[in-house]
Specification:
By secondary structure, the chain is an alpha/beta fold. The mean pLDDT is about 95. Helix 4 packs parallel to helix 9. The strands form 2 sheets. The protein has a 5-stranded mixed β-sheet, with helices on both faces. The chain has helices spanning about 1-10, 10-15, 40-60, 70-80, 95-100, 120-125, 130-135, 140-155, 205-224; strands spanning about 20-25, 30-35, 85-90, 110-115, 160-165, 180-185, 190-200.
């Protein structure tokens, strides 16, 4: 993502003098920092607004917040504003997505439930994941993530279902399915979107980045 952003706004970065542009890598994503020097605060803000508009014109679809708003706050607002509910089925993230969504006051308005289905038995029993798919494709696969999202949505009766399955590490990886491989699915009334991800870092970082990507997928799903 940082490379993509840099490519799209490279000319703005190279041409900078005042204001200046900087890309900062953080666990929650890439921060685009715009800094201006001026004789007054108002003048500096106006200078920043011009560059901010140029950046948004290039990469606006990837920007989820301005200033200090975090992803769960953004998604919570979208869910509430659109009167939508969500339910989570998590494996490698162990309930972290649901925890982030319920950290916002008033979360009972949009989250209907959550289930941690770590074992294959739990996936089959509670989410109706097909045993043949688990046997042939494995628990960490796009097919299982899809069935998890659709299964939890159907079981609880929410507008959106989310399924997460992956290998958080540090053990459990193979050549074909390395540590950091995570499949995330978002299911709605009309279709299901599944995304393959390869996250770097330790176990905590992989799990956090998985929930961050899941929240971004919910955000994009609602917007589209």
């Amino acid at each position: 993502m940082s490379l993509l952003l840099e490519t799209k706004i490279k000319d703005l970065i190279l041409a900078q003098s005042n204001p200046t542009l900087a890309l900062l890598i953080r666990p929650e994503g890439v921060i685009i920092r715009i800094t201006a020097k001026a004789s007054t605060h108002i003048e500096a803000e106006k200078m920043i607004e011009i560059v901010e508009a140029q950046v948004k014109a290039r990469v606006g679809e990837y920007i989820y917040a301005v200033d200090d708003e975090n992803m769960e706050e953004v998604v919570a607002k979208l869910l509430k504003d659109n009167c939508l509910t969500v339910t989570c089925a998590e494996s490698c993230t162990g309930g972290m997505l649901a925890s982030r969504l319920t950290s916002i006051s008033g979360s009972s308005m949009y989250i209907k439930g959550s289930i941690v289905t770590y074992s294959n038995e739990a996936k089959m029993k509670f989410l109706d994941v097909d045993k043949e798919i688990l046997d042939t494709k494995g628990a960490v696969s796009p097919e299982v993530a899809k069935q998890m999202a659709e299964g939890v949505r159907k079981a609880v009766g929410s507008d959106i279902g989310v399924g997460i399955t992956g290998i958080a590490g540090p053990t459990g990886g193979t050549d074909k399915k390395p540590v950091g491989l995570v499949y995330i699915a978002v299911a709605g009334k009309d279709n299901t979107v599944v995304k393959e991800n390869i996250f770097s870092g330790d176990r905590a970082r992989v799990r956090y980045r998985s929930t961050q990507q899941a929240l971004e997928m919910i955000r994009q799903y609602i917007k589209k």
